[in-house]
Amino acid sequence: MSTEQNPNGMGNQNPNQNPNQGSNPRGPMRPAPFKWSRWLFSLWGVLLVGLLAMQFMNLGESPVKTEWAAVEEMLAAGDVEKIVVINDKTARITLRNGVVEEYRTKPGMKNIPAVGYQFTLNVGNPDILRNDLERVADKYGVEVPTPGYEYETNVWVEILSFLPYLLLILFMFMMFRSAARGPGGQSGVMNVGKAKAQMFDKNSTNRITFKDVAGLEEAKVEIMEIVDFLRKPEKYRELGGKIPKGALLVGPPGTGKTLLAKAVAGEANVPFFSISGSDFVEMFVGVGASRVRDLFQQAKEKAPCIVFIDEIDAIGRARGKNAGFSGNDERENTLNQLLTEMDGFATNAGVIVLAATNRVDILDKALMRAGRFDRQIDVGLPELKEREAIFGVHMRKLKLADDVDREFLAKQTPGFSGADIANVCNEAALIAARHDKKAIDKEDFLAAVDRIIGGLEKKSKVITPDEKRTIAYHEAGHATVSWLLHHANPLVKVTIIPRGRALGAAWYLPEERQITTTEQLMHEVAALLGGRASEQLTFDKVSTGALNDLERATKMTYAMVSYYGMSDKVGNRSYYDSTGASDYSFSKPYSEQTAQLIDTEAKELLDKAYAMATEVLTTHREGLVELAELLLEREVVFAEDVERIFGPRPNKGEVKVED
Question: Rounded CA gap, 478 and 298, in Å?
Fold first, then answer.
């Protein structure tokens, strides 16, 4: 089921696995790597303990720093036994044994040592000290000791002086090792040219096979030949055949391209290298090409094997396509190296390259030619039966109620990819758990579909009665026109409960058709304009609620005229550019006169569709009013109620405009 949302009010809603990776955790035990950061913290700890120890040692007996006046008094009293000058800076003063205890009784001298020197004195100049001693001897008539001179080296002071330089060297060494090792020990500056590919071998616990990939039956058939070659290469080589060197998986996001590639490796029982296209490109010049070489070198050593490059458009974009805006020589060098590795002078026997992209239109032609990516496998959105199978895969681990029908859910989700279906299953489980249910039922899945397509319900949103009435008639207009015009999408339900950015929604179940005729497109445009026509018919005025409807209707009519050739005046012309070259051009591919003609034709188609919607609503005015009033009462109306009001939908080719 597909929805369309209106960012500015009511909307005509029209909605259109990545397995766990890893290897055997019970591998051989490896010794833990040496942690330099841990060693540095240990060093800091040792230094801190040493400093604290020295501090505690100083809390005991220690010499007292004194001044010259106090020393002069000691000399005059004859209490000084010896004076030693250390390094011409500090004088150590030792007292006579008989007076140490006497000095300990004086204030501030309680902890002077009993052995060794008791005082220290800063000496500015040894010659001045000698002169001062001679002056004291002459002044007091006493004998003073002759100073001695010694030179000492403090090991701790020397270490502390070199400590900043040592720490700087250690820090630089750690940074160098960290840069060389990189995050998680993978890569860094010294091995920046190494490929970052993840390798999965046959011993991986999370091995994936085709049984784990629901749907994609055609893609499986095409790719099975590659699996058969990897299993039995001799069968092809005996006949002189060569297996394609590469296969390109093309499709919208979430359709299972990566999952399919992993299933190929699992089926073939060979090593599988997985890497993203963006992993090749770095800010350093030449890194991308080096990583390509390293990747293929690893692949050759593990051959036969599969190399899978996801999002290859990151490096495979056509060269020189937008050279006038910005050039990227590094990306182009990476692409050139990839081209050489895939089809150069080197032999890559047994190495098969799989790639995935959803932008095949911008890839370089040299990459797409035979001999490189020989096959282009379309991985499109799943059909009805494929969606049912995908639901089966994702429901294996869910606790389901008896009323859950996979076929019904598959019909409710046209245009959903495999990733979308996985999201629906997960959202249904969350909704059931939120309501304290023991199992997930049908209503939970439908609520999950509504939640994913339209957004979360906002029942608390403040809407005035007049606005609510306008919304009801707007949505009733959509429902009425889409029900009575056969080629419009079948209605499922219509609601005026705000959801996401829309104030109301009409839910449809579009037909899964491959081509669309002019009549079908006109009916769809008329259904889009049904809400605006209902407002005009009922209130004789319009609101901003039709913004999304008008936007989609305008794009559709312009596509009918300029892309599909559905205008008699413009003729069988198409100005659609599938190559994407027009994205880099400032000019239109047609003249101003043709542009005016396109505008005129698109307007005529819009006017015709609006008149069709107005005619249907005018003819069934009573049913429109009844449906709108029912919406105001219930807030949600289903297709059964619409059928009761208007009767069964018209047969093919009919437009029901009469009562």
Answer: 60
Q: At 200, is the pLDDT very low, low, confident or very high (cuts 50, 70, 90)?
A: low
The CA distance from 433 to 586, in Å, is: 53
Q: Which of 344, 380, 124, 370 is nearest to 249 (CA)?
A: 380
* List 332, 386, 475, 535, catalytic entry: 475
Q: Give 338's strand partners.
A: none
Question: Exposed, middle or buried by CB within 10 Å (0-12, 13-18, 19+), for 1?
Answer: buried
Tokens of 377: 């496998």
CA atoms within 13 A on the CB side of 398: 29
User: For position 534, what pLDDT does the model report?
Assistant: 92
In this predicted structure, the answer to whether residue 409 has a pLDDT above a threshold of 80 is: yes
CA 297 – CA 645 distance, rounded (Å): 71
Residue with tokens 């070489």: 293
| pLDDT tens profile 260-274 | 888 877 777 778 888
| Locus of tokens 């030792």 | 94
Q: Which of 17, 10, 7, 5 is nearest to 382 (CA)?
A: 17
Confirm whether 467 is a catalytic residue. Answer: no
Local structure of 148: helix, strand or coil: strand
* Start-to-end C-alpha separation, the chain: 30
Contact 224, 327 (CB under 8 A): no
Nearest CA among 501, 494, 502, 497 for reference residue 527: 494
For residue range 225-258, what is the model confidence (pLDDT) as tens digits?
A: 777 787 777 787 788 877 777 888 888 888 888 8
The contacts of residue 201 (CB under 8 Å, 6+ apart) are 23, 271, 272
Structure token digits, residue 76: 């005059």
Which has the closest alpha carbon to 366: 319, 327, 325, 411?
319
Residue 81: how many other CB atoms lie within 10 Å: 15
* pLDDT at 24 exceeding the cut of 60: no
Lowest mean pLDDT among 4-13, 132-141, 191-200, 482-491: 4-13
Interacting residues of 457 by C-beta distance below 8 A, sequence separation 6+: 497, 498, 499
Per DSSP, what are the bridge partners of residue 655?
485
CA 56/CA 44 separation, integer angstroms:
18
The pLDDT tens digits of the residues spanning 327-350 come to: 456 777 888 888 888 875 555 567
pTM score, whole prediction:
0.61
Closest CA to 638 of 443, 379, 453: 443
Residue 513 reports pLDDT greater than 80: no
CA-wise closest residue to 352 among 411, 472, 264? 264
* Cα distance between residue 639 and residue 439, in whole Å: 27
Mean residue pLDDT across the chain: 78
Phi and psi, residue 274, nearest 5°: -120, 130
